[in-house]
Amino acid sequence: MSGVRVLVGTRKGAFVLTSDGKREKWDVSGPHFGGWEIYHLKGSPVDPNRLYASQSTGWFGQILQRSDDGGQTWEPVDNKFEYDGVPGTHQWYDGTPHPWEFKRVWHLEPSLSDPDTVYAGVEDAAMFRSTDGGRSWQELAGLRGHGSGPNWQPGAGGLCLHTILLDPSNPERIFIAISAAGVFRTDDAGKTWQPINRGLRSEFLPDQDAEVGHCVHRIAMHRSRPNVLFMQKHWNVMRTDDAGESWHEVSGNLPTDFGFVIDVHAHEPETIYVLPIKSDSEHYPPDGKLRVYRSRTGGNEWEALTNGLPQSDCYVNVLRDAMSVDSLDPCGVYFGTTGGQVYCSADAGDSWNPIVRDLPPVLSVEVQTLP
Amino acid sequence: MIRVVLPPHLRTLARVTKEVTLEIEGPVTQRAVLNVLEASYPMLTGTIRDHITQERRPFLRFFACEQDLSHESPDAPLPEEVASGAEPFLIVGAIAGG
Q1: What is the pTM of this model?
Q2: A146 pLDDT tier (thresholds 50, 70, 90)
Q3: At the topology level of CATH, where does A3-370 sit?
Q4: Whether complex ipTM tops 0.85
Q5: Which residues of chain A neighbour B92 with C-beta distances below 8 Å?
Q6: To the nearest whole angstrom, how far is the Cα of B27 from the nearest Cα of chain A?
Q7: What structural domains does chain B harbor?
C-alpha cells in the first residue's frame, strides 16, 4: 500500500512524519538536527530516499545535509556558497547600496531527472546548483547578473530566493521567485534570466507596475500545465496562463488577499489552495479563524475550508514554504503553522486533522508520496 | 597535542562527544588550530569562521586560560599552556538569540 512521508522544517529541527495511504495514523520522527533552523528539506522525485536539508543558525551559519535512506541517517555535504566573481551590491532597506552576502539556503529543489542534481535558492538572493549530490555548489550567476540585480531590495524576511519551479516538459525552463524582486524565468537552463512580472502591481513601489521589485511570496504550478502559474503575492493572488508573460488577479471573494502559501491540487489543475492572512503587519488569520480557501475554478471563486481547523482564537501564521500536496487519490493537502501544528486533509481540503500540535514554529512542509 | 573544546552543536555535527585533540606542526596560533581542526573534521568548515573571509563568525568566541582571545590576531601565538596541551582552546557560542 502506498504511503506518505511529510518532511517538516522548524525553527528548532526537522521532523519526519510518515503514514500509510489512509493518512490517519502517523509515526513522528525527530527532532533531527535539534536546535538548528531547518528552513527546508525535500526529496528527489527520482529517488525518494535521497533527501536534502538546509540546516542553519546564527551562531554557526549554513550546513547542508543529505540522506540516502529517507531520513534515517544524514551526511553533511558542502556548505560553501560562493558568489561568482565580484558580488557587487543590491539595495538595502533604505535604498543605499549593500554588498551581496550569503546568509542561508531558503529552498532546495531536487532535479526531476537526476538525484545528484539539486538547486538551492539562497539569501542574499541567488541560485546555486550542485550536480554531485551536494558535494559542491556553483552559482547560476546569470540571475544576479541580470541588469536589475543592483536594484533588488530585501523584503521583511530578507532578500531571499524562496521558490524554484522546474518545468517538467522543458528541462531548460526554470521559474524562481525572490522577495522582493519578483519572478524570473530562464529558458536556457539558468544561463540567462528575464523578469516576468507584467501585470503585478505593488503599492509600496514608487512605480507600482515596475519590471522588478515586487514582493512575491510563493508561486505554484501543476505539472500537467507548466505554462499556468499561480502566485500569492504580498497582497493579491495572481495567475498567468502564458508562463509569466502576463499576470492577472484572481483574488475574487477572498476575505483578504494577503498570505504566504499557495498550492495546486495534484489531479485537478484548476483547484488551488491559499491561506489568507489578515495583513502584512498582522501575520495571523482574519477573525482568529484558521481557514484554507479553495478555488475549483483557477481563482476568483473561493470557498472556505474549516472542518477540523480552529475557528476561534487562532493567531498563527503559515509561512511561504509550509504547504504541500501529496499525489494520492483523494489528494492530500498539508500545512504547518508558526504555532507548531501540522494539519493534514486526506480529502482535498474537505476536512482537516492535526498530525502534530506542538512542534517548534514550522518553516516548511514537503510531502513525498511513496510507492 | 592541542585540546579543543567545541560548543555542543558542533560536537554533534562532528560526531564527537568530548574535547578533540589535534597535532599541530609549527607555531600554535588560532589559524593553525582552525586549519587542522577543519582538516580533521571537514563538516566544521564554515561553521567557526567564514568560508571566504576566514573571519570568526560573530556569535562565537575563543577563550583560553581565562582570557578572551577572540580579538587577537589569528596569527598570534596561543598561550604556552594551550600549545603544551595543559589547557584547552575553548570555542564558545555567545549568549545571544534563542
Answers
A1: 0.96
A2: confident
A3: Methylamine Dehydrogenase; Chain H (2.130.10)
A4: yes
A5: none
A6: 26
A7: 2-93 (3.10.20.30)
